[in-house]
Amino acid sequence: MTKKLEIYPEELFKKGQIDFTPIPVCAYSKTLAEEKKLYSKDEFVTIFHDMMVLRTFETIINEIKLKGEYQGVKYNHAGPAHLSLGQECAAVGQAYSLDVNDLIFGSHRSHSEILAKGLSAIRKLDDAVLEKTMREFFGGATLKVVEKNFSGSIKDLARHFLIYGAYAEIFARVTGFNKGWGGSMHAFFTPFGIYPNNAIVGGSGSVSPGAALFKRVNRQGGIVVCNIGDASFGCGPVWEGLMFSAMAQYRTLWDQELGGGLPLLVNCFNNQYGMGGQTNGETMGYEFMARIGAGVNPDQMHAERVNGYDPLAVIDAVKRKKEILLAGRGPVLLDVVTYRISGHSPSDASSYRTKEELDRWIAADAIPAYAKKLVSGKIATQAELDKIQSGVEGLVFDMFKLAIDPEISPYEPMDSLFIETVTFSNQKVEKFCDREPEFLQKLEDNEQYKRIMAKVRFAGADGKAVPAMKQYNFNDAVFEAMVHRYSIDPTMVAFGEENRDWGGAFACYRGLTELLPYHRLFNSPISEAAIVGAAVGYAMAGGRAVAELMYCDFLGRAGDEVFNQLSKWQAMSGGILKMPVVLRISVGFKYGAQHSQDWSALVNHIPGLKVVYPVTPYDAKGLLNTALAGTDPVIFLESQQLYGKGERFHTEGVPVGYYEIPIGEPDVKRVGKDLTMITFGPSLFKALDAADVLAAKHGLEAEVIDLRSVNPLDYAKLVESIKKTGKVVLVNEAVERGNVMHNIAANLTQLCFDYLDAPPVVIGARNWVSPAAELESKYFPQVSWILDSIHERIMPLAGYTPETNRTLGELSRTSRLGV
Amino acid sequence: MANAVVMPKAGNTVEECLLSKWRVKVGDVVKTGDIICDIETDKSAIEVESTGDGTVLALFWNEGDLVPVLQNIMALGNPGEDVSAFAPDGAATAAPAEAAPAAAAPAAAPAAVAPAAPAAASGADNAPMSPRARKFVAEHPFVVPALAGSGAGGRIMEKDVAAAYQSAARLSPVAAAMQAAGVAAPAAGTGVGGMILGADMGKAAPAAPAAAAAPAPTAPAAAPASDSVVDVITEKPFPHIRKIIAKRLHESLNSMAQYTLNAEADVTGLLALRQRIKDGAENLGLANINIGDMVMFAVIKALQKHPEFNAEFSDNVLRMHSSINMGFACDTPRGLMVPVLHNAQTLSLAEMAKTVKSMAKQANDGNINPDLLTGATFTVTNLGALGITTFTPVISAPQVAILGVCKTLLRPVRDSKGAVEYRDFIQFSLTMNHMVLDGAPGARFLQTIKNIVENFDLICIAG
Description:
The complex is a heterodimer. By secondary structure, chain A is of the alpha/beta class. In chain A, the strands form 5 sheets. Chain A has a 7-stranded mixed β-sheet, with helices on both faces. In chain A, strands 3-4-5-9-8 form a 5-stranded parallel β-sheet, sandwiched between helices. In chain A, helix 20 (528-541) packs parallel to helix 21 (559-566). Chain A is globular and about 100 Å long. Chain A starts with 8 loop residues before the first helix and ends with a helix. By secondary structure, chain B is an alpha+beta fold. Among the domains of chain B are: 3-86, CATH 2.40.50.100; 242-462, 2-Layer Sandwich (Chloramphenicol Acetyltransferase), CATH 3.30.559. In chain B, the strands form 6 sheets. Chain B has a 6-stranded mixed β-sheet, with helices on one face. In chain B, a hairpin with a 2-residue loop joins strand 15 and strand 16. Chain B is elongated. Classes of the chains: A alpha/beta, B alpha+beta. Chain A binds chain B through residues 726, 753-758, 791-796, and chain B through 97, 130-135, 150-152, 155, 157-158.
């Protein structure tokens, strides 16, 4: 949405047609004579060398998976091995044209891509830089292995390092590129421009646009390559990534000095199969994968099909596409036709293809074909190539032997708890770049800023001391925290649906449109997977991102991005990557079954996410400040019931200045001695009302504790309270079954067992779909539910008549029925 | 180098001790001689000192465990050292309460019992008891009567057992451990305030007042020097109550400037009155009012005129009480006990004498309510019957004075006509805290007592 783009009926209704331009298919036609002018003999031979490295590397893995040994060396590799034998040529051709600062993202089948990119980067890096990189990587642990008894050039040493590091990672050794925490499907090495591969099919499709965004916003050179397979184009998140990277605004609304369209090469290694599903003719309808580009934008993504069995054709194509990207006319789609002569994995009996088909492709194998071309074209002799081949085979085999030796390449001693230190990086980083942060106006001139500064920052204990419009509210807290970090970290960007102009669906960003240039705050397509995925890619590339999901209910749309990407990469990278992403998620009400759900239990369940849910302006600003200064992914839940509410607890008022509230520390909102109520989210206010009734009618002093965070969570204050009261009720607005409060209640039962006078009682919403606004009081926890639960399950309240059925019989009944 | 600390053998007859409180936790650094835990036998409470230096690496028993003597209770060493080898059989490091010390105890031990949930012995009905209530019972051992729980579904909660605790017979730590092991507890015991002692367990009714523990003769430590006389050392470990008395008396002398004034009063008249009361006791129901009662009554009257003696002193503040809570020392089989006559100023002489006798008997029998042993504002101690003519009683802090009553002596007195007459004089030894009370006020207080004693009938008539 922007007022800059006006819409006219006469234009929209004008008669006409959409014209497509022809999409080239294997159009490369250079003769050997032409090619000899482009490449030196060394360069021709290098291509052969690199293909041989890739072939040997995976042949060894294939042999040990199938036979348990290679040339007499026995090894059992328990983990996965998704091989790309047959596809080496496409990988080497691509890497040949990429510079070190061109970043590749991959798939579950990316061994060849990372080796090819690594070999390319080693050739292009200065020796001194290369040596420093290796020496500093994990304190030189990986280098130390290959350096022993080595004599030769730095570049040769680096090739040992690359092959060994990749093997060690695949075999889960601490000397691997990710200390063994990534493994076969995730191995990567960022100093060579090799970014994460992804075991989720199409996983890089939504993540890599974020890295391209980082390059644009932060004026970094180079391009980003998203290497995914043909079958992944059936994945929604891949399509969302295409939509996100092809947004017109990069070239229409953004400052053109930044460079225009995203520098993203969506590169399909089209090996014809998704496991066994045949994409052309069976599981997809595109016939030519490159056709997809025509549906994306007027440039048709500059789509083209390339012969992936001719390395020189691939080099030529990537070189041309890179020029388009650097000129700001991205994104680009390449359909690199290739074939996997190995199975999908060692368990693959190839029941989906004929022996004849396989033999046909083995006969067409690109490596011998290329060797023949060099010999017949008198570029190199067979003897020269044989010598290269045997040298490569010896090198790769040696590195394999080092990587499987448990003395030289040990496993992670799991009791060291290393993984706990990288699940969260727990750092504070003020800014990820020293550039001056970009603003469109001075903060003091911003109308929203002025409005907020004129507000009253404490609303009284009942929230009614000043008129609602004059209260400093939750939205204002979000605004202030965002502006603070925006003003310090130039890499910080925020995006999501309706973030600009509208100011976020709930107006937290009101005023930021005037304050910030497009590239720091923009509207995304309604593509939750792409929104979260881009934030992940942006953070991987080195920036700080704030992504927004308009409703918690839409979390499912970003399921993989939240559950497998955002949460896992710090740990899967062995601590190499940081994930400074705040994912603001609004929890709705009044809008029915698909707009009213608190899914804190889902995110709490996933390792690697911090989960907070502030319900007061003071807590919101302090926690968002902390989240925005950190290096970990934070799920920042906000309740739509509370955006307009003022501060009722922090009597000094919400500070104008900066302050942080540690994530994981509950807050006692009311002190009492007879009963503890623990809340997460807006149920705090129901609990406080219940506490009023308990005090007035039953002479009981309830202590009310607002968790604020569920992960991490320091139980000390909760335990202290229960030791005092012996009785505890936990309340939030998520459905009762699988509620995060059950997790906390179970832990408290263990931590405080001997102090409990009754079992902890969890009160959540009914295990139904949420009803219409008018009926919500029968669905979400109410004050009466809390009192009823205390009466039925903890201690009968004298003279009290329950309004709802909170008995154990009812608990059994609803559980039995699953409702 | 890791090493272990063992449960000391706290006396020759002691086979096991109750570990009542850990003073250290895993990770603490301790030195030889540091107190690491409190233990109790049925007669005493003991502080256990560390026998080594290092970081506490493991505690092998939980508070409340009955631990056989000479078993390892704790391991010390450098952080990270493996001390599992020190773990005694059956004890678990940081074990939850149900971990049972196995039967590794010496054979003579009356079974190293597992401190199971005390609620096993709870009231007759089967009402569920909350963990918190169980914890209360574990920490306040008593015979839990049948209770109606006030929680949901009749669950017994902490407040229910806390209320019952106020009126029920309490269990000594050893008795509690025995109860947990399944030994039945009687409804009342022979300890102070009816406390059920280990010796009472398994018996149907309270036994006679417990005799002092029989001293156990032990073998001499070395060969006797003389060939004919064998020096037999008799060890008598202090019971818990004696430890408390000793500590309080020592603290009293340490913290006050105590001095004693002696005076006497003519009780010739009082003795005649006492004889008349005795003669008329049957008719008037005034049996057993003796000279000591009358003197105490006189002191109560005197205190009403000298409120600075009916007082407590601490933190440089003198707190004078309007109520006179008269403590009176009793010699009992358990040692010195001081029952307290609360609001003594409201009692008639007859009421006072009757109550004093009743309380003295309870103290002597060992079943006095502990609440009647606290709260004195002034104390009287009487050694007259034992022939003492003068002494220096020790003040019970934070009181400011104590009156010692001594033997009555016959003295010649010259009357106004020069004639000599023999009269009876009772002796008083008033010890005071000079920090609070100087000699003159003390002398005046004694004069008041003397005056009341010598005009006792008139004072009684005056009310």
